Amino acid sequence: MTAETVMPILDVSRYLAGDVGELDRLGRELRHAFEHVGFWYLRGHGVPFDLIDAAFRECERFHAQPMDDKLALRINEHNIGYMPMGGSIARSSKVNNNTRPSVNEAFFLRRDRTPDDPDVIAGKRLRGLNQWPPNLPGFKEVALAYMGALENLGRRLVPIYAVALDLPADYFDAMFAQPNMIQRFSHYEPRPEYEDNEFSIAPHTDSGFMTLLAPSAVPGLSIRLPDGTWFDAPALPDCFIVNGGDILRRWTNDRFLSTPHRVINTSGKHRYAIPFFFDTHPDTLIECLPSCRTAESPARYEPITYDEYAIWYASRNYVHQGKD
Predict the structure, then answer these.
(1) Do residues 100 and 89 make contact, with C-beta atoms less than 8 angstroms apart?
(2) Three-class SS string for 76-101?
(3) Which of 24, 76, 79, 196 sits between 20 and 30 A of 159, alpha carbons compared?
(4) When comparing pLDDT for 89 and 150, which is higher?
(5) Are strands 271-273 and 180-188 parallel, antiparallel or unpaired?
(6) 3-321: which CATH topology?
């Protein structure tokens, strides 16, 4: 199996250049990708490659800091900050009984807020202030530029999802006017071998709507295909790898897949990853879409806000949230 035969490649360059006639084609291709694989390659995305490279450099620079500097930014109740090795146990897997913490460390950022933000003042969960490393000049500027570029790209992609689901192209626009977003800067140490049931990231499904993964120079990502086989998904230098999560599956009444995936780093090299999680506004009510239910196939899930689901997911998968 090759990457192109397993994971469809969607080239959005003409659409992003203003050719709205591309929407129907892209909608059909996206629908096929999510109904059969749950992962796809995004080509022609328009994100400057030098910005992607800069984000990877900042990821590496962050994790090269002394441990005391990283622990000074320890992850908090808003899932913002530094998560040391062993900080998560993936409990969203239906394909593996994960019993060991994942062997990775990560630094999390969210929408950059100010102290006078109403959600900050109200103390809403998962909507706190970012923690910024004080000893890394330029880190904040690059991170915000990268997150801004991915936020803009995510908004441009949302109409393709609507068309793929037989909805008006602008159906989701208001829900993503101020999207929830998470930037994760991950580091996987090289491990020549793993203990039983141990992974760099254990098999899991993502929680949200859209994950955008920039191409890493070091392999390690595998996805579980619907037939049960694991496929090592290579990074294509000019493509993002995109997948959906449990919110998308729930919203579509299981029509679109939330595909399990894992990371195993036996490359002998340090692996860095910068996944960006793009989701609807936290207050959005997630209930079965009108195009995904019929009298014969009624809604399978009770309505829930994105925020409620995200808090529940965090409590199950992150050690520091487990008290909830």
Answers:
(1) yes
(2) CCCCCEEECCCCECCCCCCCCCCCCC
(3) 79
(4) 150
(5) antiparallel
(6) Jelly Rolls (2.60.120)
Q: Please write the tens of the pLDDT for every residue from 16-25.
A: 999 999 999 9
Angle at 173 between CA 317 and CA 299, to 5 degrees: 60
Task: Name the token pair of 119.
Answer: 């959600």
Q: What DSSP line would sit under 210-277, residue for residue?
A: EEEEPPPSS--EEEE-TTS-EEE-PPPTTEEEEE--HHHHHHTTTSS----EEE---SSS-EEE--EE
φ, ψ for residue 238, nearest 5 deg: -105, 15
Q: From residue 124, give the alpha-carbon distance in Å to each of 118, 128, 165, 294, 307.
A: 9, 7, 32, 36, 10
pTM (predicted TM-score): 0.95
What was the pLDDT predicted at 100? 87
Given the DSSP bridges, would you call strands 9-11 and 39-43 parallel, antiparallel or unpaired? parallel
pLDDT at 323 over 60: no
Partners of 286 in the β-ladder: 304
Backbone torsions φ then ψ of 225, nearest 5 degrees = -75, 160
Closest Cα to residue 83, out of 73, 91, 75?
75
Q: Which residue has the higher pLDDT, 10 or 321?
A: 10
Q: Average of pLDDT values for 290-319?
A: 90
What is the predicted pLDDT for the residue at 317?
Answer: 65
> Structural domain boundaries of the chain?
3-321
Sign of CA dihedral 298, 302, 306, 310: negative
